Amino acid sequence: MTPALDQFISRLHKRGRLRVWSLVITIFGDAIVPRGGQVPLTVLQEIMARLRVEPGALRTALSRLAADQWVVREKDGRNSLYALDIHGHRAFDLATRRIYAAGPPSWDGTWTVAVSPPGNGKVGDRAAALANAGFVEAGDGTWLRPETAQSPEAGATLAGMLVFRQQPLQTPAAAASFWRLEETAHAYETFSAAIAPLANAMEKGHITPLEAIVSRILLIHDWRRIVLHDPGLPAALLPSDWPGDSARQTACDLYTRLAEPSEQWLDEAGLPPLLDPQKFAGRFGA
């Protein structure tokens, strides 16, 4: 298992300057929040050491996250405890539903179309907010999105626009071409190829609890980077050969195999038990 894991860790570092704060966010969201949301610094240090992240880089990342109101720090004797701030909890709640979803969101064919009135210059200022809410610009000042079970609330973003929400007379087969899906498809294909050696190594050999938690963090770190940039279209709008489906199944299979030994490591590290074991077991629809 070690060579395959080391290869995956090297891949993480070869992307350029490592954003340690983002890796910390992955650890919190995947492993700490389900156990109450608080973790000793020593636990983070042990995971990060196996990921070849220096203690100073971790401390800098935690300071940045605290300054940005993502985490709060408490002292417990000589040890430091870190927990999510309220802002961090809200962001995690929104992201978690997409990261661990069983598949594309359900959809009844309803679209929301938002049109900016002539001369309204505010749309340009909120283009990023519209895109983050799942909208795509279909023309000058006209935005649309399929209304799925995962669509976030966008009322404030749509203020001042003419908004329609209904099922159209027809939805063309090429409707997905409004979005640039090529890069997302390539990211899913790259992800599947990258984790294949890790999955194969786990099937053939023994894995330690520490290797399991580190592998799980790397898996979700890569996965969430793709999923949270994916427009999240329903299956009816996606190409029949969409690589996201097989990538999700691959992620699910590996995550399921890693769950027990990685949770063992968290138990041995002294973290509180899972708040909702059934909810945790249902990740990826397992």
Could you list some keywords that capture this structure?
7 strands, single chain, Methane Monooxygenase Hydroxylase, Chain G, domain 1, WH-like_DNA-bd_sf, 3 domains, Transcriptional regulator, PaaX family, 3-stranded antiparallel sheet, alpha+beta, 4-stranded antiparallel sheet, 286 residues, Arc Repressor Mutant, subunit A, 11 helices
Please give the radius of gyration in angstroms: 21 Å
Q: Main sheet: which strands, in order across?
A: 5-6-4-7
What overall geometry do the principal axes of the alpha carbons give? globular
Extended strand count: 7
Biggest sheet character: 4 strands, antiparallel
Regarding CATH, which class of the largest domain?
Mainly Alpha
Q: State the helicity in percent bands.
A: 40-55%
Q: How far apart, in Å, are the first and last alpha carbons?
A: 24 Å
Q: Which topology of the largest domain does CATH recognise? A: Methane Monooxygenase Hydroxylase, Chain G, domain 1
Overall CATH architecture of the largest domain? Up-down Bundle
Pick out the low-confidence regions: none
- Secondary-structure element string: HHEHHEEHEHHEEEHHHH
Beta-strand proportion: 5-15%
Number of helices: 11
- Secondary-structure class: alpha+beta
Into how many domains do the coordinates divide? 3
- Summed over residues and divided by their number, the pLDDT gives a mean of 92
Provide a concise account of the structure shown.
Residues 179-267 form the Transcriptional repressor PaaX-like C-terminal domain. With 286 residues, this protein is an alpha+beta fold. The protein is 51% helix and 14% strand.
